[in-house]
Amino acid sequence: MFGCSPKVVSYTQDKSIHSETGIPDYSQLDYWAAHPNKVDPSDSVPRPLKNTIKEKKVDVFFIHPTTFLEDREYGINNAKIDNDTINYKTDYTSILYQASVFNEEAQIYAPRYRQAHISMYFERDSAKKYNAFNLAYEDVRNAFIYYLEHENKGRPIVIASHSQGTTHSTRLIKEFFDGKPLGKQFVCGYLIGMPVKKNQYETIEVCKDSSSTGCFVSWRTYREDFSSEIINRSDTTIAVVNPIIWRSTNEIVTRDLQQGAVLYNFNKIYTHTQGAQAEGNALWVPHPKFPGSFLYRAKNYHSGDINLFYLDIRKDISRRIEFYLKK
Fold first, then answer.
1. Most buried residue, 1, 104, 241, 255, by most Cβ within 10 Å?
2. Mean pLDDT across the stretch 266-288?
3. What are the pLDDT digits (tens) for 292-327?
């Protein structure tokens, strides 16, 4: 539904990535889907917002979601780092439609990594599942270490992610920020599209409002009439922040307060597409209103977790950066 068209912006693609070992070398720009020293889709800005680019005051380390979705050879549980089809899909879906939301006041770093195949989330063999996700995390971890040692130079850091990216970002924050000296540079975590427990960390809490820093926000989006034993309104252990008002209260927020969504057309912003309510372990929204939306019948809006609130997130990250720098 959201963020699927690669036709909006045209970029020169990376040269074919090649590694003798298959292990990404993060000193090479080819192993980054987004990086300040290359032109990539994260630099894109929807046309109505073209005049709002500001000084890049912080770094965003963005971990993209699963784009290894197709059938694969038996036993191949992780994407090859030089798979051009997967990398293209990553760049023109997640990097264009998700990572770009943070580019107004931030430099964006998004590593390519040997992501686990989507089927690994449903794998019954626990060892196989662990090995697939652990390999992916090791790439993300190595990229982050390279970034810290060669790129960061003491700048404030935002960790942002979606879906499988959040599987890895929750672990990354635990290892590098929670109760660690690097926590002083932690602006915020946008851990979207996966359940993150409220007590996930010892020293990092769920953000209380849009002025909070050193905290994290998280949500998963479903239509208000979605029904599931797992996704429900009674589980209060999961962090759910409403990205329209940036609070965890369960008040029903009407669509007139929603800032703007970016859907199929990257250069079009749709305002007041839906309201939202944070309740239980999910974010609940009414059927979104946009041209042709009456044809859309799905009730799981996972693919739109970021796109449905594109402008809301864009404004929020600017606020948090301002409050962080004042502190």
1. 241
2. 96
3. 776 678 899 999 999 999 999 999 999 999 999 998
Query: String of b and e for 15-29 (b: at least 16 CB within 10 Å)?
Result: eebeeeeeebebeee
Task: Please state, in angstroms and rounded to a whole number, the distance separating the CA atoms of residues 194 and 86.
Answer: 21
Confirm if 75 and 120 have CB atoms less than 8 A apart.
Answer: no
Whether the predicted pLDDT of 10 surpasses 90: no
The pTM score is 0.93
Residue 248: C-alpha distances to residues 125, 150, 209, 212 (Å): 36, 37, 8, 13
Q: In which region does residue 215 sit, left (phi positive, over 0), alpha (psi from -120 to 50) or beta (all else)?
A: beta
Strand 106-111 vs strand 157-162: parallel, antiparallel, or unpaired? unpaired
CA distance to 158, 184, 190, 255, per residue, from 181 (Å): 15, 6, 20, 40
